[in-house]
Amino acid sequence: MFLAFMGISEGAIPFALESPITAIPSYMVGAIVGSTAAVWLGAVQWFPESAIWAWPLVTNLGVYMAGIALGAVITALMVVFLRLMMFRKGKLLIDSL
Prior knowledge:
mainly alpha, two-stranded antiparallel sheet, elongated, transferase
């Protein structure tokens, strides 16, 4: 979370490398849904920076943050759903401790 607030997306790379079939499409769909919802509801980001220090430059900050939350929820649900489908088909094994 800390990296995301600072505008650094490299924290997601280990998760994408672990399971690219589920992670990458989920990240893409979550980003598209969240950003589209925020823009559709009236959020405008005048400065091309996603870090927390650029948030004062956003018009309709509440809507912008709601778009971020919506994108995160969509991403999480899609990752869980895709991994569950892979597990049920026997393409994903879960190691026990």
